[in-house]
Amino acid sequence: MASIVHLNQRLAASEQPAAGSWLAALEGDDAPGRDRSAARGLVQRLAGELAGHGTTIASAVARRMLAAEERLSDPDDPSVEDLATRFAHANVGAILAGLAHGVPLETAPPPHASTALLDRMAERDDGLDVVLRGHRLVMADVWRVWAAFTAERVLDAGLLHAALALSTGQVMGYTDSVSEHLAPVWSELRRNRRRGVDVPVGELVRRALFAPPPVAEAALARLGLPVDAVHLAVAVPAELPAGEADRIARRLRLATHAEALAAPGPEQTTIWLAFTRAPTATETETVRSALDAAAPAGLGELGQGLDGFRETCRQATDALRIATLRGATGVTDFRDVALLAVLCADETRARELARDELGPLAADDEVAARLRETLRVYLACGASQVAAAQRLFVHEKTVKYRLRQAERLLARDINERRSELEAALMVHHIFAAAPPTA
């Protein structure tokens, strides 16, 4: 104990470090004006270079954040993790863009993804802490990458010090700015959640899709959809012109006399129709007729109650995904593409099917590729050689010749195992260009 006290006394009595030592950095900005000016240009240039790897960095940062903050994941609701991932990507992008363009990060507001995540976390008592901890985790990892990247490229110690001092202030200022913007709105968000007011349609839809039954059924009621209704979902692309999804919903409501709800999302807009009784085949056909034939749309199957509301949404989503992959227009029924939807969700199984069904046609050469494409278009055109020729911009006889070549390689008639053949062609078309995932 005496030796520790003696050491403390010696340290307290020691002389102040000489100017320019490590402690002098706390006494003020010791970089001359020339170095500060050079540092600003250097930071912008290096940040611009690093921003080219922004997606890779953000993906790694998001994974580390989700691993470190388990409250940002909900096994029963994958949309929470999706929103947290977008939050990480948005903040990584904001920091790198601010450094690259000399934007004063010290006053920058948080990106929309941060406020959206805060709104979602308002369901939790500790939601603000979760979001701010997520920000700190993102900031720390971005700084770690930035500092290592800068140190690799700047050999001059003085210039490196000036660049890191400047960028440290900017990044830490961004952290403070985010906290100052988010903290004041937290109390109001919590009050609104407890009262159940001002809840966005998207949030009510999320509850109806993922929350436990009592909460989900209450959300359906607030959306104006009877819980015991027969539901039918239509999925249309998110990039439709502004207001088009609402116009489609109104058109469907008038055509079917059912309650209709349009809920936009990042990748699609889902429209639900709620019937008081199961519609007839003629009434269901009215839905197809009311949709725009020029744009792709996925149509689920009828389902009753909360489970039906959720299942028809999943089916419509899968149907739209297959329609998009096919480049199809008009309505794609889930029941017509259920096999493809399942296969495209399981890459290993899809590749095995393509290899087994196509045999020699799966070869990686120009002839096999041309025959596969001809077969795929021919089947997509309802087995019409004329329509296939028009889509392929070749003569009808060319299509006929290629089909015969394909049958010789398959060692069977095209119409044998036609659904399996079409599925194999589709999944080969989807996955052939990409290497298998680990």
Q: Can you give keywords for this protein?
A:
Arc Repressor Mutant, subunit A; disordered C terminus; 6 strands; 18 helices; Globin-like; Alpha-Beta Plaits; alpha+beta; 438 residues; 3 domains; disordered N terminus
Explain what this protein looks like in three dimensions.
The chain is an alpha+beta fold and 438 residues long. The chain has three domains: 30-195, Globin-like, CATH 1.10.490; 225-342, Alpha-Beta Plaits (2-Layer Sandwich), CATH 3.30.70; 346-431, Arc Repressor Mutant, subunit A. The protein contains 18 helices and six strands. It has helices spanning 2-13, 33-51, 54-68, 78-101, 112-121, 127-153, 157-195, 201-210, 213-222, 244-256, 281-290, 305-326, 334-344, 347-358, 366-380, 385-392, 396-410, 418-431; strands at residues 230-237, 259-264, 268-275, 296-299, 303-304, 330-333. α3 (54-68) packs across α4 (78-101). Mean pLDDT is 82; it is low at 1-20 and 433-438.
- Specify Rg, calculated over alpha carbons: 29 Å
Q: Indicate the low-confidence ranges by residue numbers.
A: 1-20, 433-438
Please write the CATH class name of the largest domain: Mainly Alpha
CATH topology type of the largest domain: Globin-like
- The CATH architecture term of the largest domain is Orthogonal Bundle
Task: Give the biggest sheet.
Answer: 6 strands, mixed
Q: SSE order in H/E notation?
A: HHHHHHHHHEHEEHEEHEHHHHHH
What gap, in angstroms, lies between the N and C termini? 58 Å
Tally of separate domains: 3
Structural class: alpha+beta
Supply the number of helical segments.
18
Average pLDDT, all residues: 82
Helix content: 55-70%
Strand content: 5-15%
Report the count of strand segments. 6
State the shape: flat
